[in-house]
Design goal:
Its main location: membrane. It is a multi-pass membrane protein. There is one protein chain. The protein is about 50% helix and about 20% strand. By secondary structure, it is α+β, with helices and mostly antiparallel strands. A 6-stranded antiparallel β-sheet has the order 3-2-1-6-5-4, sandwiched between helices. Helix 2 packs antiparallel against helix 10. It starts with a helix and ends with a strand.
């Protein structure tokens, strides 16, 4: 006993205890701080990654229904409307509708669409699988059709548990397949009265495949549920009764569009995350054990415990080696994690050696790389959304201009005005040739002016007594490239909202020049009725805020065409460019289009209305 007491009271023992405390206490402190930082970082990134995966699955489902929803354009087909509205169609009419179905399939490659059906309010319909048929039961007994009658503009996405498609109502089965039915009303073109319904049956296996392909770790999974929490689509390896909680308990917690939370009332803690499909309203719910999500953090904890235990067993000579090989890399990793938590994602660790700390550094570097990939993907998706918005703006075409022009050609031909018919058809051909332009978005100013000239020739022949036009553009500006269909909507506004409402003849003038800042200014001016100061202020406010005015009739309202051109210019060239509007009551309106001058003698043309 005295020997043991002497040994512990010796200087060597005191130094050993001191060195052990010096080596172990700081390492324990560093280990705890590193673990807390690592746990918080990994926990946050793991939960964020799981939520992003739920968002991706929701976008995939929205993309599926958005693409399939293009088939709803069939409700605008004149042959379909005539078939549903009248009872006098022929076999050729039915064949024409079925050929239209086939054309849509060949165009959009709808491999998962099982059937397209249309039926009127009296049960008479046509489908790909059945051809022309008559339902034995009243279609208005279908609760989904009743809901559509009360909300004609609604598009229903009916899951397999609720789907009552036309064929199956009439006894047809899909050989054991489950389907998702997309339902909408078909309305009469003029009165907007509901005359029937369109039903698209989609194989639900594609949504189930989304669930099978989207996994979280080793045991986590996603499933699709209704807004009330009831499962709709489950992964193949999971049964609905295997869920850890009841839909009635989960439903109230799915009120937001996306969220994640930890559920501790079902045994082992679960991390539950969900996102919402915007088109269907379905909830994409993900479940993963919290322990599995935090596996990396547990490994860090084990590493720290191991490091501290080893530090207590080493001698004084190994003390410096342990602190150099273990504490310093942990401190470096902690600093890099702090930089990453502050938003600096280039804070990579340079691992040295092949120990656990080096593996942790490599894992940290891989994690930062994944985060950067997700951010790049998000930026790319925003760019794609902007491009999609631009294409939607360019796709706004008013068919009434074509109908009215064709009507003019018919009555001119009936009146024997052959030369005028030829001139009008040539102008119409040039108008659409340049307007289509092989799908290209850019044209020269010369081509754009030719497009506008063709439009004015057509309109001048229709409104000979009221319309004159004048084009004054220097030749040096003709080779400048700009977005197509930028001048024609402005000229159309000048005609329909300025000249047409004026008594007597009116003049539309198109001019171009370059201002002192080097920007190209394209002006469209009319001497029509103009607009009041209040209306001018309203239109300027709509343009500045980017708000789209409502349509007010068959023709495009004065603000709609301006908004179209203004938004397209700003999407391509930036906020500094766009449309400027000036007007005075009973004096006329002047619209100035400002774009960059990127390329660089005179066109002077005055119409002859005689």
């Amino acid at each position: 006993m005295k020997l043991i007491r002497w040994r512990w009271s010796s200087l060597r023992a005191k130094l050993l205890v001191m060195f052990v405390l010096i080596s172990s206490v700081p390492m324990i402190a560093v280990g705890l701080v590193s673990y807390q930082k690592s746990f918080a970082t990994i926990s946050g990134h793991g939960k964020a990654s799981a939520l992003l995966e739920a968002d991706r699955l929701a976008r995939d489902i929205d993309g599926l229904f958005r693409d399939t929803g293009k088939l709803l354009e069939l409700e605008e087909n004149p042959q379909v409307l005539r078939f549903l509205f009248t009872q006098s169609d022929t076999y050729e009419d039915a064949k024409a509708i079925l050929r239209t179905f086939e054309l849509y399939r060949e165009t959009y490659k709808y491999e998962d669409v099982l059937n397209i059906s249309m039926v009127n309010l009296y049960g008479r319909g046509i489908s790909e699988r059945r051809g022309v048929f008559q339902l034995e039961r009243n279609p208005l007994r279908n609760p989904h059709f009743v809901k559509l009658l009360s909300e004609p503009d609604l598009v229903l996405n009916v899951p397999p548990s609720e789907a009552l498609s036309l064929d199956r109502v009439d006894g047809f089965q899909y050989e054991g397949r489950n389907v998702i039915s997309i339902m909408a009303t078909i309305k009469q073109r003029i009165t907007k009265e509901v005359i029937g319904f369109i039903v698209i049956d989609l194989d639900d296996s594609i949504v189930r495949q989304f669930c099978d392909d989207s996994l979280i770790g080793k045991t986590g999974y996603f499933y699709v549920a209704s807004s009330g929490g009831s499962p709709i689509f489950m992964p193949s390896a999971v049964k609905p009764d295997a869920l850890p909680f009841q839909p009635a308990d989960l439903g109230p917690r799915l009120a937001a569009d996306r969220e994640g939370f930890v559920e501790r009332s079902v045994g082992k803690p679960l991390f539950v995350m969900y996102s919402t499909s915007q088109l269907t309203g379905w909830k994409i719910v993900g479940l993963v054990p919290l322990q599995e999500l935090m596996r990396d953090a547990d490994e860090i904890r084990q590493l720290i415990i191991l490091s501290v235990t080893l530090s207590l067993a080493f001698t004084i000579s190994l003390y410096f080696f342990v602190t150099t090989r273990l504490t310093r890399p942990v401190q470096v990793l902690m600093n890099k994690m702090r930089q990453a938590a502050g938003g600096y994602l280039e804070a990579k660790v340079k691992p040295t050696g092949s120990d656990e700390i080096a593996d942790l550094g490599n894992s940290f570097n891989i994690m930062l790389g994944k985060i950067r990939e997700l951010l790049d993907q998000s930026i790319k998706e925003r760019e794609n959304i902007q491009k999609a918005e631009l294409r939607a703006l360019q796709a706004q075409i008013n068919p009434h201009f074509l109908y009215n022009t064709l009507d003019s050609i018919i009555w001119m031909a009936e009146a024997g005005k052959n030369e005028q018919v030829i001139r009008l058809v040539q102008a119409l051909a040039r108008f659409f040739r340049i307007g289509l332009n092989r799908g290209m978005e850019w044209v020269t100013l010369k081509e754009e002016l030719e497009h506008v000239r063709s439009y004015l020739v057509i309109q001048q022949m229709r409104y000979r007594d009221i319309l004159d036009y004048e084009i004054v553009v220097p030749d040096s500006l003709l080779h400048i490239h700009l977005l197509k269909m930028t001048l024609q909507p402005l000229v159309e506004n000048a005609l329909y909202h300025g000249i047409k409402n004026k008594r007597g003849r009116g003049m539309i003038t198109i001019a171009a020049n370059v201002d002192t800042s080097g920007s190209l200014l394209l002006a469209v001016e009319d001497d029509g009725i103009g607009m009041t100061e209040q209306r001018l202020l309203e239109l300027r406010e709509l343009l500045s805020k980017g708000r789209l005015p409502e349509k007010t009739g068959d023709e495009v309202s004065g603000g709609f065409g301006l908004h179209n051109v203004h938004q397209r210019i700003r999407l391509y060239y930036g906020e500094a460019y766009g449309v400027e509007l000036y007007s005075e009551t009973q004096a006329g309106t002047r619209v100035i289009l400002k774009i960059p001058h990127r390329m660089g003698g005179a066109i002077y043309e005055k119409s002859d209305a005689g």
